[in-house]
Protein backbone atom coordinates (compact mmCIF):
# COMPACT_ATOMS: atom_id res chain seq x y z
CA UNK A 1 0.00 0.00 0.00
CA UNK A 2 1.26 3.46 -0.83
CA UNK A 3 1.82 6.23 1.68
CA UNK A 4 -0.21 9.46 1.42
CA UNK A 5 1.69 12.49 0.15
CA UNK A 6 -0.26 15.56 1.17
CA UNK A 7 -3.76 16.90 1.48
CA UNK A 8 -5.55 18.78 -1.29
CA UNK A 9 -8.43 21.26 -1.52
CA UNK A 10 -10.75 22.68 -4.18
CA UNK A 11 -10.85 26.42 -4.88
CA UNK A 12 -13.14 28.64 -6.90
CA UNK A 13 -11.25 30.57 -9.54
CA UNK A 14 -12.71 33.94 -10.41
CA UNK A 15 -12.38 36.02 -13.57
CA UNK A 16 -11.55 33.11 -15.87
CA UNK A 17 -13.33 31.82 -18.91
CA UNK A 18 -15.17 28.52 -18.53
CA UNK A 19 -13.10 25.55 -19.59
CA UNK A 20 -14.47 22.44 -21.24
CA UNK A 21 -15.48 19.91 -18.60
CA UNK A 22 -14.48 16.87 -20.66
CA UNK A 23 -10.74 17.58 -20.41
CA UNK A 24 -8.35 15.73 -18.14
CA UNK A 25 -6.78 17.84 -15.39
CA UNK A 26 -4.03 20.27 -16.38
CA UNK A 27 -0.92 20.45 -14.24
CA UNK A 28 0.31 23.95 -13.35
CA UNK A 29 4.15 24.25 -13.49
CA UNK A 30 4.38 24.48 -9.69
CA UNK A 31 2.60 21.10 -9.37
CA UNK A 32 4.85 19.53 -12.01
CA UNK A 33 7.94 20.80 -10.20
CA UNK A 34 6.76 19.54 -6.79
CA UNK A 35 5.81 16.10 -8.11
CA UNK A 36 9.24 15.79 -9.78
CA UNK A 37 10.88 16.78 -6.50
CA UNK A 38 8.82 14.23 -4.52
CA UNK A 39 9.51 11.41 -6.99
CA UNK A 40 13.25 12.14 -7.15
CA UNK A 41 13.72 10.34 -3.83
CA UNK A 42 11.42 7.46 -4.84
CA UNK A 43 12.92 5.86 -7.98
CA UNK A 44 10.73 2.75 -7.65
CA UNK A 45 7.55 4.86 -8.10
CA UNK A 46 6.43 5.99 -11.57
CA UNK A 47 4.06 8.77 -10.52
CA UNK A 48 1.35 9.84 -8.12
CA UNK A 49 -2.23 8.61 -7.92
CA UNK A 50 -5.16 10.90 -7.17
CA UNK A 51 -8.16 9.35 -5.48
CA UNK A 52 -11.15 10.40 -3.41
CA UNK A 53 -12.54 9.26 -0.11
CA UNK A 54 -15.70 10.11 1.76
CA UNK A 55 -15.19 13.20 3.94
CA UNK A 56 -16.16 16.89 4.23
CA UNK A 57 -19.32 18.86 3.46
CA UNK A 58 -19.80 17.45 -0.02
CA UNK A 59 -18.78 13.95 1.02
CA UNK A 60 -15.48 13.73 -0.88
CA UNK A 61 -11.84 14.56 -0.15
CA UNK A 62 -8.91 14.10 -2.55
CA UNK A 63 -5.99 11.82 -1.70
CA UNK A 64 -2.55 11.69 -3.31
CA UNK A 65 -0.29 8.66 -3.07
CA UNK A 66 2.91 7.43 -4.68
CA UNK A 67 2.28 4.63 -7.16
CA UNK A 68 4.42 2.00 -8.83
CA UNK A 69 1.90 0.98 -11.50
CA UNK A 70 -1.14 2.20 -13.40
CA UNK A 71 -4.39 0.57 -12.30
CA UNK A 72 -6.68 -1.02 -14.88
CA UNK A 73 -9.30 1.74 -14.59
CA UNK A 74 -6.93 4.66 -13.89
CA UNK A 75 -6.85 7.65 -16.23
CA UNK A 76 -3.25 8.69 -16.97
CA UNK A 77 -2.18 12.32 -17.35
CA UNK A 78 1.37 12.86 -18.63
CA UNK A 79 2.66 16.41 -18.65
CA UNK A 80 6.26 17.67 -18.75
CA UNK A 81 7.62 14.24 -17.80
CA UNK A 82 5.29 13.79 -14.82
CA UNK A 83 2.73 10.99 -14.63
CA UNK A 84 -0.44 11.44 -12.60
CA UNK A 85 -2.93 8.58 -12.39
CA UNK A 86 -6.55 9.30 -11.52
CA UNK A 87 -8.62 6.57 -9.88
CA UNK A 88 -11.93 5.79 -11.54
CA UNK A 89 -13.98 7.19 -8.64
CA UNK A 90 -12.13 10.54 -8.87
CA UNK A 91 -12.23 10.98 -12.65
CA UNK A 92 -15.58 12.77 -12.93
CA UNK A 93 -14.79 15.17 -10.09
CA UNK A 94 -11.50 16.24 -11.73
CA UNK A 95 -12.63 16.83 -15.31
CA UNK A 96 -11.55 20.28 -16.51
CA UNK A 97 -9.60 21.07 -13.31
CA UNK A 98 -6.12 22.51 -12.82
CA UNK A 99 -3.76 20.83 -10.36
CA UNK A 100 -1.53 23.40 -8.66
CA UNK A 101 0.91 23.38 -5.74
CA UNK A 102 0.70 26.30 -3.31
CA UNK A 103 3.02 27.22 -0.44
CA UNK A 104 2.49 29.98 2.10
CA UNK A 105 3.71 30.74 5.61
CA UNK A 106 1.38 28.24 7.28
CA UNK A 107 0.84 25.46 4.76
CA UNK A 108 1.84 23.77 1.55
CA UNK A 109 -0.60 21.69 -0.48
CA UNK A 110 -1.76 20.54 -3.87
CA UNK A 111 -4.84 22.52 -4.91
CA UNK A 112 -7.40 21.55 -7.55
CA UNK A 113 -8.62 24.80 -9.10
CA UNK A 114 -12.01 24.62 -10.76
CA UNK A 115 -12.57 27.47 -13.21
CA UNK A 116 -16.23 26.39 -13.63
CA UNK A 117 -17.42 27.01 -10.04
CA UNK A 118 -18.70 30.32 -8.72
CA UNK A 119 -18.13 29.81 -4.97
CA UNK A 120 -17.43 27.35 -2.18
CA UNK A 121 -18.53 26.79 1.38
CA UNK A 122 -16.32 27.82 4.30
CA UNK A 123 -14.29 24.63 4.26
CA UNK A 124 -13.78 24.84 0.48
CA UNK A 125 -15.21 21.39 -0.21
CA UNK A 126 -18.75 22.22 -1.44
CA UNK A 127 -19.22 24.39 -4.50
CA UNK A 128 -21.79 26.06 -6.80
CA UNK A 129 -21.64 25.92 -10.57
UniProtKB/TrEMBL annotation:
Protein name: Iron-sulfur cluster assembly 1 homolog, mitochondrial
Entry function: Involved in the maturation of mitochondrial 4Fe-4S proteins functioning late in the iron-sulfur cluster assembly pathway. Probably involved in the binding of an intermediate of Fe/S cluster assembly.
UniProt subunit comment: Interacts with CRY2, but not with CRY1 (in vitro).
Family statement: Belongs to the HesB/IscA family.
Domain of life: Eukaryota
Domain Core residues, every copy: 27-125
Pfam families: Fe-S_biosyn (PF01521)
UniProt xrefs under NCBIfam families: iron-sulfur cluster assembly accessory protein
